[in-house]
Write a structure and sequence with these properties.
single chain, alpha+beta, GIY-YIG endonuclease, 4 helices, about 45% helix, GIY-YIG nuclease family protein, GIY-YIG_endonuc_sf
Length: about 130
């Protein structure tokens, strides 16, 4: 059994470990509609998706109707792009914000490329404030 100090050290190491970040899509293989999203943790996003498939539950509002219509097995998780780490360990909050900005920029590029809106996808268009 681990003592409290060792648990704290392991938890600190885990929170500072670099996680794969990037852009992914959840694709409906029956109608090819996609939901494109960016994440600071690609493995975590994949794990959540697989958990949803196993439990037959879906927490993504945009795809809920098709999830119920076609079934969980009709959806696949696909990594589109990832950010390569500059270091193995996160140093500070400003570095994390820089990575978040990179993820957001990559997401915008993929949204522009794939246009996953309306009949092509589950993403919602951003409304411009005028």
């Amino acid at each position: 059994m681990l003592d409290k100090q060792k648990k704290k050290e392991l938890a600190a190491d885990y929170t500072q470990t670099f996680r794969l970040m990037g852009v992914y899509q959840i694709r409906n293989v029956k109608n090819n509609k996609v939901l494109v999203a960016g994440t600071m943790d690609l493995d975590g996003a994949r794990n959540r998706f697989e958990f949803c498939q196993q439990t037959r539950l879906n927490t993504t509002h945009e795809i809920q109707r098709d999830w119920l219509t076609y079934g969980a097995d009709s959806f696949v998780f696909e990594e589109l792009d990832r950010i390569q780490p500059r270091e193995d360990v996160m140093v500070d909050a400003s570095e994390l914000r820089n990575y978040r900005s990179e993820v957001d920029a990559l997401l915008e590029l993929w949204l522009e490329k794939l246009q996953p809106y309306d009949e092509a996808g589950y993403n919602r268009r951003k409304h411009n404030k005028t």
